[in-house]
Amino acid sequence: MTERADELTPMMAQYFELTRQYDDALVLFQVGDFYEAFCEAAERVARLCEITLTKREDSTGEYAMAGIPIDNAESYIETLLDAGYRVAIADQVEDPEEASGVVDRAVTRIITPGTLTEDELLGGAANNYVAALAREDDRYGLAVLDVSTGDAYATGSDSLATIEDELGRFAPSEAIVGPAAPTDPFECMVTPYDERSFSAEQARERVGEYFGPPERLLASDAEVRACGALLAYAEYTRGGTGIGEDGRLEYLNHLTRYDPREYMVLDAVALESLEVFNRRSVRSSDGLTLVEAIDETACAMGRRELTDWLRRPLIDRDRIEARHEAVDELVGAVRTRERLHGRLREVYDLERLISRVSRGRANARDLDSLGSTLDVVPEIRETIADSDSAKLQAIHDRLDDVPEVRSLIAEAIADDPPPELTEGGVIAPGYDGTLDELRETERTGKAWVEDLEQQERERTGIDSLKVGHNSVHGYYIEVTDANLDQVPEDYQRRQTLKNSERYYTPELKEREEEIISAEQRADDREYELFVDVRETVAAESERIQDLADALAQLDVLVSFGTVAAEFDYTRPEIVEAGIEIEAGRHPVVERTEDAFVPNGASLDREHRVMIVTGPNMSGKSTYMRQVALTALLAQAGSFVPAERAQLGIVDRIFTRVGASDDIAGGRSTFMIEMSELAEILDHATEDSLVLLDEVGRGTSTTDGLAIARAVTEFVHDELGATTLFATHHHELTDVADELPGVFNRHFRTSREDRVVFEHEIAPGAAKASYGVEVADVAGVPETVVQRAADLLEGSETTAPADDGRTPTRTNGHGPTAPGHDGELASADDETVAGSGAIRDRLREVSIAETTPLEALQLLSELQSEIEE
Ligand code: ADP
């Protein structure tokens, strides 16, 4: 149908007007109990939500129509969001019974992936961010906001790569970008948003209104623009109800401005390969992520805070140590920890509650939850009152139970209030005289009606006479047909039924009006009172948010303490530089492996590049990750899984780990590998920790080795970064002889009747060939493996016994470099397989890429070569 206004009914004209105004959203238009979409939009909604497309006919024509029930609209809206739409909710904002013409409707909120506030849509406690990116000359400004909690951050940089790293931390689900700002760093819904709100002038004004003078708060115009535009967007999506006249979102009153250099940099690649928040692949789908493994928080705010601490580990020594000191105190204090944990479990999500309160969306239950949360604060405060830790003391001082709000809620809100606000029962008796009087009138009226039946029976002598109520006709006196002759004169007929008549008396009618009017006025009064209470609470949102933050921090510290006690973590000592770990463990793998083998690590400025060799599955990746996770945990403020740890502060963790496992769209895995490598070589400093796993595997052996070697030299000579480099390029271990800062470690396997991975790291390099092990692990029949092993043994050159002092390995490359701690290659380092072609061929085997069949094939070839 065409939408010519003169041909439309008023309702459809209203619909099309709204779709024009909100042309970047799907308008859902309330008609009674449904949200409707019409015409093309209806077809889209019907298809996506799998609901029936119906037809509507009016005087002007026929339209397609699709309706979703308001009662469970959330799941449909979720589907529409997932399909990439914004949803504009056009509610009836007028009582249909009171409307003179068509019912007035207005868009009350725009639901977008990054600005969700509905618990049902948020699905869980995790933060949900919307980001804004602005650009001014060469400067980028990034602002990030969680509308549901009020968490707001701003940062900036000259480097787009830095901005990308920051985006990796927040993983926003939606972004808006200003003029000249790029859209490609985002992996979410991106909208070029209204340029005016990105304008410096508008932005400055908005930031000023919300957070205070922008020049004191933010570092560049680009940041101001990003923040301003983001606030404008939040206002735009918030809808109209319950907000101050100027449209401000009062609960957004605190902005954290930070410099990316204040935190350890963890880009998306590192977070992913260390499996901090997400598992990397289906392969490890049964394992835990780091955050799951160490999350012992009691409340939703703590859970979000823990995520934040892991996402932004500190690099300031004092701040790190302050957290450690707090954890130290809590580890030992079992009873205190348990008491705090118990109380924190009773804490509701204050951040989301106060955000709903400020947006005028909180109901009486929300206020009730807020009140009961404030009620537990004094006990929590008292529990840490005597704490020695400065951090816990600081938290103690911020545990403000906001007594005015607490007592207001206790006095005003009824116990166990209903979720609806307009039907009464939300305000406690005794809070308001007028309300109490109205309720009393209502009550006495109803009591009078209740007594009426008995009275009228006595007066009329009709024993079967009944007094009742129905919603259409109100109160009535019912008399069956058999007794109609006894009906007194003052009865007036109200309704005729099959076997009876219904009457009222003037007095009953009067009482009825009294009851209805009192009830209606009481409900209205309750709503008014409630809104007043809600606004009074909203005015304290800053204090409540501060309390929320203090509770969240405490919850994380208690959680760190619990994990440390339960899993035997130790307090790391922060030192100038280097990594010295004794008996370290992988915080996640140790939970799933029955017998996890602890391993140490020792790196310092002089010995900063460790080359790790060993067969597939021997534990190299686990080891490297455990070192990185130890640094990450320590700087987040946690204790670490080790017997002892001395750690220098790391400015950034880089990882280039096994892209060969991933199926990446578009670019070849080698390309990804090389671009990740480029990023590392560009940005690592001598304070960085670099994990390299199998660099150069995606190309030929010669190329790969050349690249691996060049990288090692560059990292060693130019960057000076602390580096762990796992490789199957055995030749790389020779670099240790040539560069003073490079040393070898390997994972050994023991051979009894079958290869056993010991998962234990040892000094020196591993032997070069693992063909037989691979064959064994791959399930090649025992006899074949054994025969191959015999053949290999026969061709090995026997080295003199290693006495632990003289380097004796004769692998054709001279002596193995000793570890920097002076340890030498240990006795069970096996000598490399014999000379010539067989050795070379074995060395060239790329274990990761060898299938069992190929391994068999290779064995058979080797066998025939030897026999020749
Ligand atoms: P690689 O990188 O050498 O191929 P991984 O680090 O992936 O080996 O380890 C292979 C498997 O061995 C892991 O999945 C883990 O279950 C187990 N593992 C690794 N390190 C240890 C350890 N220190 N103690 C016990 N098991 C371990």
TrEMBL record:
SMART domains tied to this protein: MUTSac (SM00534), MUTSd (SM00533)
Positions with a binding annotation for ATP: G614, P615, N616, M617, S618, G619, K620, S621
Residue ranges annotated for the DNA mismatch repair proteins mutS family domain, each copy included: 688-704
Keywords: ATP-binding, DNA damage, DNA repair, DNA-binding, Nucleotide-binding
InterPro entries: DNA_mismatch_repair_MutS, DNA_mismatch_repair_MutS-lik_N, DNA_mismatch_repair_MutS/MSH, DNA_mismatch_repair_MutS_C, DNA_mismatch_repair_MutS_clamp, DNA_mismatch_repair_MutS_core, DNA_mismatch_repair_MutS_N, DNA_mismatch_repair_MutS_sf
Family classification: Belongs to the DNA mismatch repair MutS family.
Protein name: DNA mismatch repair protein MutS
